[in-house]
Structures are given as C-alpha cells and as structure tokens.
Amino acid sequence: MASPSTTHKGWHFDRANSRLQAVYNGTEVFDFDADDMVITPNLTVTGTIGTGAATLASATTTGNHTFSLTITAGADGVGADGEQLTSGGAAAECDWAAAGSLRQFKKILGMRTDEQEVLEMLAETPVYDFQYLTKAEYNGELDHPITTGDTATVYTGIMADEAPFLMHHKGRILNPINTVGYLLLGIKALTERVQTLEAQVAKA
Fold it and tell me: What is the 3-state secondary structure (H, E, C) of 111-167?
C-alpha cells in the first residue's frame, strides 16, 4: 500500500515495515508492529497497580486482553465498597476512608445528654445559599479550593467558621457524622419540648 495522503485519517498498513499505523492528516500518530501486542482470543492478563515510587513493568503478551487491576494504598491495603481513596497531601500516600458506623470501629467516649444546648447552637447557626468558586476565581491561602467540583449548583448550607462543631479535617470540611449527630440531638430537644407542652395542655 502506498504512503497515506496528507488528508488521510484512520488506519494505514505500512507493508515495507510490516506494521499498522494510526494516521491523522497523513502523519503517523502511533503504530503496531511485531514488537507490540498481538491480539488473539481468550488470554487474560492480571496485574496490580503499585503506589509511591512503584511503576508498571512493561511486557510483551498475546491475547484478547482483559485487565483485572487492584488498587492498593500501601500499608492501608485494599478498600471496600463505599470507601474512597483520600490524599494526605504532597508526597503522602493515599489511604482509604469512609464514615464507618459499626460500633467495632469506634472508641466510645460517652453518650451526649445536652440536647437543649445543642438545639440553641443549631438555631443560632446562619444558613446561606452559595456557589463554590472556580479555580480561576479562588485566591485563598490553600493550593486549591476545596469544593464538590460542581461550581454551577446553588447549595444551601453553613460556613465553617460559624459552625466549627460540624467540621473536621482542620475545620475546613463538613463532618457528615457530626452533622447527623447534632441534628438528632436537636430533634430530641424539640421532641422533649413538644411532649412537655402536650402534657401541659392535657392537664389544662
């Protein structure tokens, strides 16, 4: 087959070098030759992606390739359903994290009974409509804005400095565990007040 034209886009077989080329406007983008992967049916290649300084080794294999990859996080091992890989910052290994709720994962420090005080804290917390800043709009102290990644949606929520008891990760990120816990305490306080009022009405 002759050399591809300057307008050719697609595959081209280079007979002189026995290789298949991917071509865009007559220019080779990449190719497959005898040293590259040959596709034949029914071979499965498995591997593990390393972390840190580890790199994937190169190999020559044949087959209809299905890659079964396992992501590990150093000593933290392999995550489970519902967990996410989180970054500890520059040069730090990622680890698996999730808001686990099983008792066996927790060191119990005591049961809260201050629901009336918590209700006041919640009632005094301002609530706003807001949108997250884009990277171009952000000019803060951190390397990047910590957001959901969705800068178009209008959210309704709180500010970290006005509700530090509902934050974690150095007071920068909403703590979903505390948020549920404090809201439940607030509901308990409201329930107690309703029950007291109902009892007073029943006696009248």
Answer: CCCCHHHHHHHHHCCCCEEECCCCCCCCCCCCCCCCCCCCCCCCEEECCHHHCHHHE
Tokens of 124: 């005094």
What does DSSP assign to residue 168? E
- Encoding tokens for residue 59? 């190999």
Q: What is the pTM of this model?
A: 0.65
Q: How confident is the model at residue 28 (pLDDT cuts 50, 70, 90)?
A: confident
Which sequence spans correspond to the domains of the chain? 45-97, 103-203
Q: What does the alpha-carbon distance between residue 181 and residue 89 come to, in Å, rounded to a whole number?
A: 29
pLDDT of residue 63: 55
CA dist 166 and 159 (Å) reads: 10
End-to-end CA distance of the chain: give it in Å, rounded: 101
pLDDT at 39 over 70: no
How far is it, in rounded angstroms, from Cα 37 to Cα 39?
6
